[in-house]
Amino acid sequence: MIARGVVTAYLLFLLAPVVMLAIGAFGGLWVATPLPEGVTLRWVDALFADPVLWRALATSATVALGALAVNLAIVPPLAGALAVRPGPMLALVELLVRTGPVAVPSGVLGFALVAVLAGPLSPLQGSLAVLIAAHAVLALPYMLAPVLADLGERDAAGLLRMATSLGAGPVRGFVTIVLPAARGGLIAGTAAVVAVSIGEFQLTNLVAGFLNRTYPLLVADGFQRATGYACAATLPLVLLAFANALAGRSIGRPKEQRA
């Protein structure tokens, strides 16, 4: 009974900000009052009529897909090597990839990327390429962890030995046997990378150029315009995060559990 009460309280705590965002998005004037005055579609109309919104959405989608592509190119081979042929050098690489982007503050990581890739004389300054690189580095641990967990649970080394004993080469055995075993981890990692990229603010604010403003930066700018506009801009971001989490959970679940 106590556990159920704690879970209920936690869910209410999570849902309360979403409810307040919905109230603000469809409420009237909201200044120094507990709730906004009246109901209006003014903020929603203003948001969807704003061309900056669509440009920010396109930028966020481009950056998220770019960061995902970089992660999908790096993580499966790295995770396979860590699972099949562990060693001290690979263990060090894993430690850096797992903990570096999480342990290092986003601000420090952003300044480092600006210094290395986007200096004052660099043609990459403020470009989408730098933004994609920043998001890819930040999201690496969230892709690597579930893929490694899946490969460890399914004995990737044993699967590769089985494939090579049947005549497959190491690369073919990894691609056709080992990698499909990490399907759930890849799906979970994909959902995590997209969520991290879409919602990232601090790092993006440091490395994004004026023409490459992402959706979270648009939301931050919205609070300088009006509370209702900012709430209307934030609500789709929250709903997208919920949809992304539910989709990742549903797709990654084994078929027998979905039946």
Description:
The chain has 259 residues and is mostly helical. It has helices at residues 2-26, 42-48, 51-84, 88-103, 106-117, 128-153, 156-165, 170-181, 183-199, 202-207, 215-222, 227-252, 255-258, and strands at residues 27-29, 37-39. The chain has a two-stranded antiparallel sheet with strand order 1-2. The chain contains 13 helices and 2 strands, in the order αββαααααααααααα. The longest helix is centred in the first third of the chain and has 34 residues, at 51-84. The model is unreliable at 255-259 (pLDDT under 50). It starts with a helix and ends with a helix. The chain has one domain (2-258): MetI-like (MetI-like fold), CATH 1.10.3720. Helix 6 packs antiparallel against helix 9 (183-199). 78% of the residues lie in helices and 2% in strands.
For this structure, what is the CATH class? Mainly Alpha
Radius of gyration: 22 Å
Taking strands numbered 1, 2, ... along the chain, how are they ordered across the largest sheet?
Answer: 1-2
CATH superfamily annotation: MetI-like
Strands, count: 2
Percent of residues in helical segments?
Answer: over 70%
Give the end-to-end Cα distance, rounded to a whole number of Å.
Answer: 30 Å
pLDDT averaged residue by residue: 80
Q: How many DSSP helices?
A: 13
Strand content: under 5%
Shape: globular
Return the CATH architecture.
Orthogonal Bundle
Number of domains: 1
Q: List the helices and strands in order.
A: HEEHHHHHHHHHHHH
Query: Which structural category do the helix and sheet elements fall into?
Result: mainly alpha
Biggest β-sheet description: 2 strands, antiparallel
Low-confidence stretches: 255-259
CATH topology: MetI-like fold
Membrane topology: Multi-pass membrane protein
Main location: membrane
Protein name: ABC transporter permease
Subcellular location: Cell inner membrane
